[in-house]
Amino acid sequence: MTFEVGDKVIYPNHGLGIVERIEDKTILGTTCGFYHLRIVANDTTVLVPVSNVDGVGLRRAIGDERIVIEVLPQSSEASPVASQTSEGYGLISRTVRELFPGVIVAPGLMIGGTDERISVENYVEMIRFYETLIRHAAGAATGNTQTGF
User: Fold this and answer.
1) What's the rounded Cα separation, in Å, for the pair 92 and 72?
2) What is d(CA 37, CA 49) in angstroms, rounded to the nearest whole number?
3) How far is CA 145 from CA 8, 113, 118, 136, 139, in A?
4) Tens of pLDDT along 18-29?
5) Cα(7)–Cα(26) distance, integer angstroms
6) Which of 55, 58, 85, 102 lies deepest, with the highest CB count within 10 Å?
7) CATH assignment of 8-60, given 2.40.10.170, 3.30.70.790, 3.40.50.10490, 3.40.50.620?
8) How far is residue 64's CA from residue 77's CA, in Å, rounded to a whole number?
9) Could you give the CA distance from residue 82 to residue 106 in angstroms, rounded to a whole number?
10) What are residue 116's phi and psi, to 5 degrees?
11) Which residues are CB-neighbours of 119 under 8 A, at least 6 positions away?
């Protein structure tokens, strides 16, 4: 799939973006084309290699004027995003690195959205799921076939 300047696209985990320009860049001696996307939600720029649009799931936004997006009256604002420089993020980052030496802590990596309002019981189950997921990932990374560290 190819895009042109001005096209509206959906970039998974980032949302709606607009192709602002397309240019070739040389990185480590290899030249390839990049789409410069401006992500509408936070006004950031993301570079996507032209050769990897399918790999990252970049797709065209719906351009049908019959589709209307409206905010429902009972909706609420999205939960705020914690700063990577906050005390809370620093504590989580240090704890993860202590438990899993050599791991790269990636902020914002989520399996599900956090905007949804969930009950305490569901939250506890979600934390248990993440713990299990992390334990299995740690085991795979270290060659430990047990679910522990």
Assistant:
1) 34
2) 11
3) 45, 30, 33, 8, 6
4) 999 999 988 888
5) 24
6) 58
7) 2.40.10.170
8) 26
9) 13
10) -75, 140
11) none
Pairwise CA distance, residues 139 & 146, whole Å: 6
CA atoms in the 13 A half-sphere facing the CB of 97: 11
Show the CA angle centred on residue 117, arms to residues 114 and 121, nearest 5°: 100
Which one-letter DSSP state was computed for residue 132? H
Dump pLDDT digits (tens) for 49-88.
999 898 888 998 877 777 776 667 776 665 566 667 777 7
Whole-number pLDDT of residue 149: 45
| Residue 108 CB neighbours (<10 A) | 10
Q: How far apart are CA 135 and CA 58, in angstroms?
A: 31
Range(s) for CATH 2.40.10.170 in the chain?
8-60
Tokens coding 30: 């290899």
Sheet holding 59-60, edge to edge: 44-49, 30-39, 15-27, 8-11, 59-60
